[in-house]
Amino acid sequence: MIYEASFVAVTIFFLFVAVTLGLSFYFGSKAKSSQGYFAAHGQIPWFVNGIAFAGDYLSAASFLGICGMIAFYGYDGFLYSIGFLAGWVVALFVVAEPMKKLGKFTFADALDAKFGSRGIKLAAGISTLAVSIFYLIPQMVGAGSLIQPLLGFPHWAGVLIVGVTVIAIVVTAGMVSTTWVQFLKGSLLVIFSAILTIMILNRGFETAQGGSDGHALRTLSFDANLPTKEWKLPPDLAGETVATVTGATSKRTFFQIGATTWSAEAAPGRWLLHEAQTVQELDDRTILVNGKPKGSKKGEPELHPVGHVSKLPGGKASSGPLGPLSFFSTLQDSEVILWRNDKIKSAGGETVTVYYQKPTPGSQILRPGEHPRFKGIRSDKAIDKLNFLSLMLALFCGTASLPHILIRYYTVKDQASARKSTIVGIASIGFFYILTLYLGLGAMTSGSLDVTDTNMAAPLLAKSMNELLFAIISAIAFTTVLGTVSGLILASAGAVTHDLITSVMGIDLSDHDKVRVAKIASVVVGAIAIVLGILFKGMNVGYLVGWAFSVAASANLPALVMLLFWKGTTKEGIIAAVVVGMTSSLAWILLSADTFTKVYGMSADSAVVPFSQPGIVTIPLGFVTLVVVSLMTRDTAGDK
Amino acid sequence: MDNRNAKIGMVLFIIYLAMYGGFVFLNAFRADVMEMTPIAGVNLAILYGFALIVAAFVLALLYGFLCKSDEQGKPAREGDK
Fold it and tell me: Is the pTM higher than 0.90?
């Protein structure tokens, strides 16, 4: 689609960045000690910390990724919402208080509190770095997706702007400024999502023949017994040649009439051809959309925005305003045009991506199993269900093991405050996740989706309401990225300075030097994040976050839980569990079908592991490793 | 007192785990059940999902309430700085 930068959007965006940086410099002038830099002197009020939890946690993945997934596939995206929130229960009931009691700055502190071992610090420090970097990728990709419609810059510019801004925030004032940025962002995100939801309910559903640009999608009907040469084509296609091709993965039949492409539906004695959309990149890098060179201004060739209701219950044209429950019951009995894509060969033999309509009953949209990743739950084979079970387990265990969430327990003064701020966090995060279902389904039926980019669903939904809201939502989404990324970079910097350099290498840094080293580490991690964000362009950010959760849960959770609940845990057991959990989950992801197809561009059949989500294997593996190694090393631990 | 808090936490955790586990296993092995529309034409998938989110909040409040009395008069964490 063509995105034109609007003056309002640019103004609001820069206002946000200016306020954020202003806050940061203001607090930067106050924070001097390393205690202040890493843990905000433990002086953040619990309510602020609670909302900051939301700001930290509700990353680009939640806002952009989940909304996008719901908008394209329905209920399945909401499974992530449920899993992401459920993880907080583990965090609050099991991990929060011991973390607060044991540690000082970092996750490694808490793990190591009992043993004082450099090995634990090393392993935990590295796992913190690995998880943070994995989690940074989707945030940066999200930033890149956003910048294009907002400011008209390319993807890499978005990644670069976020990277540089965040490094500035983290370097100036550390945890204090990061917390306030997250507080601001958390509140704005929840408030504006609520406003958007009210507008969606107010608008209700309307039937249409196409998206918001007014283009009515056509359906042609031909006698299947006639040779295609004798088909009577509509005037604009008259005289064009007709060819059939088969989709590479869906095995569907498509008709190419001249430069246009149609998906075929076989009706008795007839072919029904539904208008499809195509994107093709030529050798000289020009992009063809629907067979014509893509324009750069309004009115020139571009992909049509999509997503509309084709049938409402009772054949009505409009549902009128809906309530929070009648929204679902109305959709349940409607039919929505979803879009799927496939690859076909053009007449010249080049690969073309085709986006085709898939009329889907509402009852299917509102049940799990529509997304290819979750379709295993409708299969009869147990192995197909493992991927789903594995993901839900990783989401449940992941939250309590995310380093940037764990460090937030050190910014409040005592255990009671840690508990209260977690409750505030759960309230605001849970409320937001309920809204994601409305936002996603609202986007699905808004007529404004970009078929090529699932991550843009939420901002484009706002655009279908009005331009100002679009500007605000985009700016909030951008701040969302800023908030989460600063938390992650800070967690990484803490791990490098505190765990790796001071504790493992045994270099005794003065308080002042610690802060300086942390700042250098922030710049380096930020730079790595920028590069990865550019490389991973185009992947759904919610999906990428699922991976980060798997790695966090596999590497950190077994060690954390066993340390708290099993007296026989030894330091060797902890080190082994962290190392095995981290490497096995990373290796699993790198060898999975999803990575093979989406990152390496190879076929899914050549993947080594049987399903893509590692959690169900690697989390128990971490526990087993810990127990076995602890039992083997029991005697040496007894000496301590 | 930490033991008491830890015990409360564990009980609440197990309650939630059972609810979440029920949701995940229903989805995985009895996906058709999720399509039933027991209340106001809204299907079980949505109702159960919303219930899980609300339950997390209710249990969290309960936890905060139950633990609270122990904390009063207790000094802030020692050994800081």
Answer: no
